[in-house]
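seq as requested:
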Amino acid sequence: MGIEPYLLASTLNLIVAQRLVRKICPHCKEPFEISDFSLKRLGISPQQAEKASFSHGKGCKHCGGTGYLGRLPIFEFLIIDNDIRKKLINRDAESEIRKLSQQKGYGGLFESGVSKIIEGLTTAEEVLKVTFAENINIDD
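struct tokens:
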């Protein structure tokens, strides 16, 4: 955008990213068992899986046979503190800023989506389709 990094870094306080994922249709929603392989890929622990209510929609007249009806947002927040600000000024790569934000405990779009999967609101396919997940290796 042609903005000097020091101007951008001194102006920003918070960055928010949002994506919409399709919501499982409440009319045809049914329990669904996720494989151990998928749980591992999603970073869902066995303890989380025990408490989760994984679901999917089998398809009905309300959702046009898709199994989805409506959308819900998933979010990613990045609070611009002094450490992040320095990385912006130094023009560090996005991967370095992401790594630092994860070290600080900030979740990303993927983690927000996984929480919606655990709640039984959407499916793994939906979250994987709309998020950037560098920790997912599809060749496992």
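The longest helix spans residues 94-103.
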